[in-house]
Design a protein that fits this description.
6-stranded antiparallel sheet; 3-stranded antiparallel sheet; DUF4390 domain-containing protein
């Protein structure tokens, strides 16, 4: 009888020890996940497609971006911090005897903001804007540039190879001052694509 009781107690102690070990392992995994920087995910901006084609009024740019945001950026927007993204485009003509000629240098700024009263996100370019109910919808529209007029018909010489340069970046200079300081120390706020370069021949 004593042996059976001792065996039962031993089994219970072993089960309790195993449960405690599992609990500690789960807690350790949670602590590791919390301590990992947000930047371990593939946040950033990359350009997946860009073309310059002739249109009715001149030359137009179409581009697509792969945009992966940190959750902290979305949280900042919902707390009232607007985000400004700048798309920069250049057309340059290499010259061996002097600096490259750059007949086209343009930029376009997109602003993402949130209205708590309406529970709506807003994407605006200048005086134009569009409202959305979900942040993902804002990103989907921001990730596509369509029919951006970048040059008039006669601005580019025929049969001349131009180098097109394109990039998108988060303009941290337009953030509120406390967030500008945070942007210097956190990779969550340093969103910028590499310059995407290709050849355009009218």
């Amino acid at each position: 009888m004593r042996n059976a009781t001792a065996l039962t107690i031993h089994s219970r102690l072993a089960a309790g020890t195993l449960q405690a070990a599992r609990l500690w392992m789960a807690l350790a995994a949670l602590m590791v996940a919390l301590c990992l920087p947000m930047g371990v995910h593939a946040e950033g901006i990359s350009i997946t497609k860009a073309t310059v084609e002739p249109g009715v009024d001149g030359w137009q740019l179409d581009a697509e971006f792969d945009m992966q945001f940190s959750p902290r950026l979305e949280e900042a927007v919902t707390r009232g911090v607007p985000l400004y993204f700048v798309v920069e485009f250049e057309l340059s003509r290499p010259r061996w005897y002097w600096f490259d000629e750059k007949p086209v240098r343009l930029s376009q700024t997109y602003k993402i903001s949130y209205t708590p009263l309406l529970r709506q996100y807003r994407l605006s370019v200048g005086t134009l804007y569009q409202n959305f109910t979900r942040f993902d919808e804002v990103k989907r529209v921001l990730a596509r540039t369509r029919a951006w007029h970048v040059a008039d018909k006669g601005a580019l010489a025929k049969d001349v190879a131009y180098q097109a340069n394109l990039r998108m970046r988060l303009d941290t200079a337009q953030l509120p001052k406390p967030f500008q300081l945070n942007a210097l120390a956190s990779s969550d706020w340093t969103l910028a694509s590499e310059w995407h370069r290709w050849t355009v021949t009218p």
